Amino acid sequence: MMDGAAAARFPEASARALGDENLQAALRLLGEGFQARRTDAVERFAGFEDARDAAVAAKTRTLRNLDRHLETFEARCREHGGVVHWAETPADARQIVLELLTDRGVRALSKGKTMVAEEIGLNGFLEANGIEVIETDLGEYIIQLAEEAPSHIIVPAIHKTMPQVADLFRQHHDQAKAGSFPRRTPADLVAEARAVLRRRFLEADAGLTGANFLVAETGSSVIVTNEGNGDLTQTLPQLHIVLATIEKVVPTLADGAAILRVLARSATGQDMSAYTTVSTGPRRPSDVDGPAEYHVVLLDNGRSRLLGTPAEEVLRCIRCGACMNHCPVYGAVGGHAYGWVYPGPIGAALTPALLGVGAARHLPNASSLCGRCEEVCPMRIPLPKIFRYWREQEHAARLNSERMRLGLALWGWFAARPRLYRLATGVAMRVLSRLAGRSRRFRSLVLASGWTRSRDLPAPAGRTFLNSWKRRS
Amino acid sequence: MSGARERILTRVRERLGSAPEEPAPSPEPREARSGDVGEFCRRLQAAGASVERIAEDAVPQAVARYLAERNLAARVKVSPALANLGWAEEPLLETAFGVADLADAAAVMPAALGVSETGSLVHASAGDNPTTNHFLPDHAIAVVAEETVCADLEAAFSAATGPAIPRAICLITGPSRTGDIEQRIELGAHGPRSLHVLVTAPVPERGPASAT
Amino acid sequence: MSVSGSESGRGRVGLFVTCLADLFRPSVAWASVQLLEQAGFEVAVPDRQTCCGQPAYNAGDLPTARRVARGILDAFEPFDYVVAPSGSCAGMLRLHLGRLFVSEQETAARAEHLARRTHELTEFLVDVASWTGVAAEFPHRVTYHDSCSSLREMAVRDQPRALMAQVQGLELVELGDRDVCCGFGGTFCVKYPDISTKMVSDKTAAIAATGAETVLAGDLGCLLNIAGRLAREGRPVACRHVAEVLAGTTGTDPIVPVGP
Taking a C-beta distance cutoff of 8 angstroms, is the pair B35, B116 a contact? Predict the structure, then answer.
């Protein structure tokens, strides 16, 4: 698991990311990749804005009565033979999962992609306790081989180029079969991973998945995937564990339908992902497949504390990844620079709630507030507003730099005194203008080195407008 | 973790207490409108599936033809729910009934419904209809009756849950795929590399079967 | 308080100069005054204005932002309209000022009243004034950068283009990725200069790809950033605020003179 301290090193990590040519090559694909596909999908679907409204309404309804929906979910899940576990913290959730596995003698666990498992650091914990974890999502599998964390919530290995993946497979896969894997195209690599992982699904004694949402009225968990790995993970082993945070519940399947209508379009630009599966309890007496046991671990980990705060709208998130696909900051530095599980705009909005404003202070600050994330967010989460909220918390707790505070105070003092402001700026601009000389620019300026390191600072005209206007009239 | 449940729910209630606004109810379930079969087929194809419209008594022949055209072995695992389609009429097609395993390259299974809004098949698990068959074989051949095609996701969920919700309801929209390597879409990540859908029409009584 | 163009009958506009135009490029404010007068409005420039308060507001320093905002509310009380040659400052006045005063009913009402009267310059000229009297010539190939605030907060996209279409000789070539931020972002560009540089470099590359001689925009923040990067890269593209071109006051140097 990445620890919280990494989020505090955002400036260093982003500088490294900007110099990483492989990463930059991978990120350059976002424009013609996910961005273009989403645009096409939205243009194909005339009802998209209405669908967004319906999805927002569904999730808003959920959150207003979250307690009731959670209780209903638990009761219905139990009626269908499932077991619901409640966990307040990552440690609680890890322990619940471990006990479920060890009580049944499970040695190997197959996993569908779940960000919550990343959030609680499940893999490392289970492996330390002697349980083998088999990541089955192709992207998760790649980064498991690379011993890295995901850098994107729906495309975990988006930072890897094809040659890098080929290298990983060369290092880790059976060399005896090397000749049968040409590794020249993405298709070759997909086929190779398929061949290698096929058997492993059947070897697992238990399968763990996340949930795109939980349905209160039926007590079901729903996963949305394209590879089909999630379905093999939750169908083949004897034990299926669902790991989900409490805000994932929606009241009805119809509410789920409202979310599905915007999810794939926003995520991958598909009208619908290949597989959407509603799982309700363990196999029935007459069934010939499906898990014998079905457990749901409901994790809070800070969600309940967000309710009723100005940041609570992050709880509407359906983890489509559109915000990061379209974010110019994410596009510049990738996901690892954010230093924690959820990168990009949603990470910048959520991480301070989970790690604290101090540890995560860079994330909501590292935004030009351009608003492209909010524009594409299917759930209309006001991400820039939430970034500002965290900045306000940071400022109120005096966690921002002394230099910043001093600068703001000084500027504010003048800005609230128009006459002095005009006098001071009048003098300052005249001086600056003279200093600039005939080139009308500064190539470096002591107090503006952040600016002038990479760009010239245009020189002010000399006389301010307000002073000139006063003379004219 | 006894007590965790109460503490979480208490915290949620405390936090919600500041927003006592009465929420709007969930929308009423939509009237189950029947869907547009042409639209359903078009969308399925757009999602990467191949689609064939046949008479309901012509499934074995269509399966045999499909396998032959793709140079696949004439051997399929058939979900028990489809045992009575007259497989014997295709003596060269080897059929076995039950749950698919790694040895099965192709499987034939029913879909309970189609959804024209999305071009999805709806699998509803049952004793004679294992979920595994949709995901494990390389080639999935699904049979769906055209009169089951409903309009939208809400109608599909409402119809599929029926009086008792099955263990698994899968909406299947095209073959397995991934975009995990350089955002390039590749088919057949873990599930089927190909999805062929046989959309069946009722055979008029006593009349000759006709393929459209 | 000083007033100009008093013969006009279409209403009184208080010009929100913006701090960047005031300090760095007064020609933008002069051009704005001229355009508003041409459109038939009486223009006043309240001398108690300083800045919209965004540096503090976006840094989370609400007390400071509030102090600055009170000054704006006082200075712009008496006008029919408040117009700013910036989507960013207009956005602050229209969408954010009220949020500063949620617990002060009376002040919140004044902020709401200000919000209703506030417009970005090109939006005001097109949507409110329905003005089609652009009398300027600019025989150049230009491209246009949409600022994020104009685009997303003020719904300004077509208005500057409608006005540019009236300029004699102006040929507009649209930018690739035109809805993507240039990396300015107020204090963002100095707090995270490396990321900002990457963003503005992508923008200047897109500008160069259009083959335009001049890049225009409606926000000076973006323009200073873009002009500074173009100059550092040695790309011979001039930067101007769109108001200067619309007013025909392009006798002044561009934001950074092109050339060595």
Answer: yes
> In A397-454, which ranges are continuous DSSP H helix?
402-415, 418-436, 449-452
The CATH class for the domain spanning A5-160+205-304 reads alpha beta
Tens digit of pLDDT at every position of chain A (473 positions): 446 788 999 999 999 999 999 999 999 999 889 999 999 999 999 999 999 999 999 999 999 999 999 999 999 999 999 999 999 999 999 999 999 999 999 999 999 989 999 999 999 999 999 999 999 999 999 999 999 999 999 999 999 999 999 999 999 997 666 567 788 999 999 999 998 888 888 889 999 999 999 999 999 999 999 999 999 999 999 999 999 999 999 999 999 999 999 999 999 999 999 999 999 999 999 999 999 999 999 999 999 999 999 999 999 999 999 999 999 999 999 999 999 999 999 999 999 999 999 999 999 999 999 999 999 999 999 999 999 999 999 999 999 999 889 999 999 999 999 999 999 999 999 999 999 999 999 999 887 889 999 999 999 999 999 999 988 76
Domains by residue range for chain C, with CATH: 2-127 (3.40.50), 134-247 (3.40.50)
CATH 3.40.50.10420 residue window(s) in chain A: 5-160+205-304
A116: which 2 tokens?
């919550």
Amino acid identity at C136: A
Interchain pair A392, C60: CB under 8 A: yes
Residue C145: both structure tokens together: 């950068």
- Which residues partner with B51 through β-bridges? B197
Tracing tokens 């703001």 back to the chain, one arrives at A408
DSSP-based three-state secondary structure for C52: coil
Q: Rounded to whole angstroms, how far apart are CA atoms C206 and C210?
A: 7
What are the residue ranges of helices labelled H in A173-242?
186-203, 229-235
Q: What is the ipTM of this complex?
A: 0.94
Contact partners, residue A11, CB within 8 Å, separation at least 6: A362, C192
SS3 call for C59? coil
How far apart (Å, rounded) are the C-alpha atoms in residues B196 and C140? Answer: 57
Element holding B174 (H helix, E strand): none
Q: How many angstroms separate the most distant Cα atoms in chain A?
A: 92
Bridge partner list, C42? C12
Distance CA C231, CA C213 (A): 13
Q: Give the list of residues 6+ apart from residue A97 with CB closer than 8 angstroms, or none.
A: A122, A126, A208, A241, A243, A297
Whether residue C2 and residue A372 make contact (CB cut-off 8 A), yes or no, is no
User: Which residues of chain B have a CB within 8 Å of the CB of A34?
Assistant: 183
Domain assignments of chain B as residue spans, ordered by start:
36-179+186-201
Q: Give the residue on B whose Cα is nearest the Cα of A155.
A: B180
Which positions in chain C touch A42 (Cβ < 8 Å)?
none
CA–CA distance, A451 with C228 (Å, rounded to integer): 9
Please indicate whether chains A and B are in contact, defined as at least 3 beta carbon pairs under 8 Å. Answer: yes
Radius of gyration of chain B (CA): 21
User: Is B36-179+186-201 a CATH 3.40.50.720 domain?
Assistant: no
Choose the mutation target among A454, A457, A463, A464 for the interface with C, i.e. most C CBs under 10 Å. Answer: A454
Query: Which residues in C lie closer than 8 A to residue A427 (C-beta atoms)?
Result: none
Q: Say if pTM beats, i.e. exceeds, 0.90.
A: yes
> How far is Cα C77 from Cα C113, in angstroms, rounded to an integer?
9
DSSP helix/strand/coil, A471: helix
- Residue B167 has what DSSP assignment? S
Given a contact cutoff of 8 angstroms between Cβ atoms, the answer to whether A86 and A296 are in contact is no
Here the tokens at position B108 are: 């034939």
Query: Looking at the DSSP assignment, which residues form a beta bridge with residue C135?
Result: none
Residue type, A268: T
Cβ distance A390 to C199 less than 8 Å, yes or no, reads no
Nearest CB among A61, A198, A227 relative to B24 is that of A61
